[in-house]
Amino acid sequence: AAPGPRSYTTLRDEAVKLFNSLQQLESERDPVPLMQGVLQTCLDLPPLVDEIYCQLVKQTTEPLAPGGQGDLHYWQLLTCMSCTFLPSPPVLRFLHFHLDRTESRFPASEMAKYACFIREALGKTKGRECVPSLEEILVLMRRQEMICTVHCPGAPACSVAISSHTTAEEVARELVSRLGLSQSPNLFALYEQSRRREQPVGSTTLLADVLTRFE
Questions:
Q1: How far apart are CA 13 and CA 82, in angstroms?
Q2: CATH number, domain with residue 106
Q3: Which of 4, 73, 125, 196 has its CA 20 to 30 A from that of 66?
Q4: What SMART domains does the record point to (predicted)?
Q5: Final residue in a domain of this structure, among 141, 173, 192
Q6: What digits encode the pLDDT tens for the residues 66-113?
Q7: How far is 126 from 204, CA to CA, in rounded Å?
């Protein structure tokens, strides 16, 4: 199930809990639920976003085993963070320095590939309503796109590749083009449908947030 409402203690206590989660992440066989928990806490408690960014930069600087499983788990969480939250300007500058340094020291490595992906994501991230779904986290860990299936009236279902930054308007435009409706005077929009209701998806809504709600 998608993360639900949580009860929190003080920011200091929550920061300690997050630090312990990061320590656990290094040896976790299935890091995805732990990553989603960290992201959810940051979404609920925005002052901790900078703290987690700084902790992840620290953990990926001079690791004992560069490119090892533990090191890559930290890079993968940093990737998910970059697609969900923007840090404050000072931390963002510090992060960019870290990404540049990593690409310079370990060219063509997995760490450098994550650093490049993160830099591009930071240029697109504007904030999320929901944390990434478990499926999205798995996709981000591989630096890939998700496949979203859209059911179109009078036409076969269409599969669309989306990123964490793709909006409903962008998907609607692509489908209109695919279906040869570019010259149609009609307006087109996406709808999300559940057992209880059907409602239009706002043009600026991120499709990744819609998918998280379905999870």
A1: 24
A2: 1.25.40.530
A3: 125
A4: MyTH4 (SM00139)
A5: 141
A6: 999 999 999 999 999 999 999 999 999 999 999 999 999 999 999 999
A7: 11
Question: How far apart (Å, rounded) are the C-alpha atoms in residues 83 and 121?
Answer: 6
Contact predicate 201/214, CB 8 Å: no
Q: At what angle do helices 32-44 and 134-141 cross, to 10 degrees?
A: 110
Q: Is residue 15 part of a domain?
A: yes
Regarding whether 88 and 63 lie in a shared domain, the answer is: yes
Residue among 33, 31, 118 at smallest CA distance from 80: 118
Per-residue pLDDT tens for 108-152? Answer: 999 999 999 999 999 999 989 999 999 999 999 999 999 988 888
Cα 182 from Cα 124, distance rounded (Å): 27
Q: Looking at the chain, list the stretches that DSSP marks H as alpha helix, in order from N- to C-terminal side.
A: 11-25, 32-44, 48-59, 69-82, 89-105, 110-122, 134-141, 168-178, 207-214
Count Cβ atoms below 10 Å from residue 214 Cβ, excluding itself. Answer: 11
Q: What are phi and psi of 180, to 5 degrees?
A: 70, 35
Q: Do 137 and 152 fall within a single domain?
A: no
- Same domain, residue pair 61 and 132: yes
Name the residue range of residue 161's domain.
146-214
- Give the model's pLDDT for residue 154: 75
What pTM does this model have?
A: 0.88
Burial (CB count <10 Å: 0-12, 13-18, 19+), residue 35:
buried
Is residue 6 included in any domain, yes or no? no
Give the integer Cα–Cα distance in Å for 59 and 162: 30
- 95 and 152 both lie in a single domain: no
